[in-house]
Design a protein that fits this description.
This protein is α+β, with helices and mostly antiparallel strands. 38% of the residues lie in helices and 17% in strands. It is built from nine helices and eight strands. The strands form two sheets. The protein has a five-stranded antiparallel sheet with strand order 1-2-3-5-4. Strand 4 and strand 5 form a beta hairpin. Helix 5 packs across helix 7. The longest helix is centred in the C-terminal third of the chain and has 16 residues. The radius of gyration is 18 Å and the shape is globular. The N and C termini lie far apart (48 Å).
């Protein structure tokens, strides 16, 4: 018989971690989020955080990967949005989407999402891959050509720079799917939102959409649980 506990043991989290901490069972308290964050901090390498999620680097099957943990309910909503892109049938194969490994399906919204590791993008990377020093310029180009049919747009772009071509076409397909969501667009224009995975540009953060932004518009900006001491990466 498959039990809830046996399913938890099958999650792709490190075997030494206490998987029961990640089963919040509807108890989304500051103390519960603090416990799982401190648990991860003691057992992996802390990378960075926003106001709602923290990123940890963990070794999985002998390779570096990242685990994004919610720090509050807004973070769970962002994990749900990101899982929709990373594992969604219409988006998971786009060149700009970081490959996913697994995500939490046992809580109402994912407490965690596990993805491949992509190194941060440098200014030189942007120039090499896109022929510009500012990644927002490439994003703006896709936005400005939104009235052009996607197939027509593809036929007008030189394939001499294959990475640039894949970036523009992949981003156009993604933005068509999200209907050029303004909150999503504003969030991906910065270089810090991008990484390099297997010699291609990929989005590191896919969690902010008009829907998840409501968590920030409807009340105080979410903050990490007290006592976690997770510094913001410059």
């Amino acid at each position: 018989m498959v039990t809830y506990e046996s399913l938890l043991r099958e999650l792709p989290l490190p075997a030494s971690w206490d998987h029961n901490l990640f089963a919040l069972n509807g108890k989304y308290t500051e103390a519960n989020f603090r416990d799982l964050l401190l648990h991860a901090k003691e057992r992996s390498t802390y990378v960075s955080r926003g106001s709602s999620r923290a990123v940890f680097k963990v070794t999985y099957e002998n390779r570096p990967t990242v685990l994004k943990l919610a720090m509050n309910e807004a973070g769970m909503a962002q994990n749900k949005a990101e899982a929709g892109f990373v594992f969604g049938s219409k988006t998971k194969d786009l060149s700009i989407i970081i490959p996913g490994i697994d995500y939490d399906t046992h809580n109402a919204q994912p407490v965690w999402i596990h993805e491949e590791y992509a190194r941060p993008v440098t200014e030189q990377d942007v120039h090499t891959y896109l022929g510009t020093n500012i990644i927002a310029d490439a994003v703006d180009f896709v936005v400005e050509t939104r009235s052009t049919d996607a197939h027509e747009l593809a036929s007008t772009i030189s394939r001499d720079n294959e990475t640039q071509y894949e970036f523009i076409i992949g981003l156009r397909k993604l933005l068509d799917i999200v209907k050029f969501d303004t909150d999503f667009l504003a969030d991906i224009r910065g270089r810090r939102q991008w990484g390099i995975y297997q010699h291609r540009l990929v989005l590191l953060d896919l969690g902010l959409t008009s829907d998840t932004s409501d968590y920030y518009r409807s009340g105080p900006i979410p903050s990490p649980p007290s006592g976690t001491n997770l510094a913001v990466t410059p």
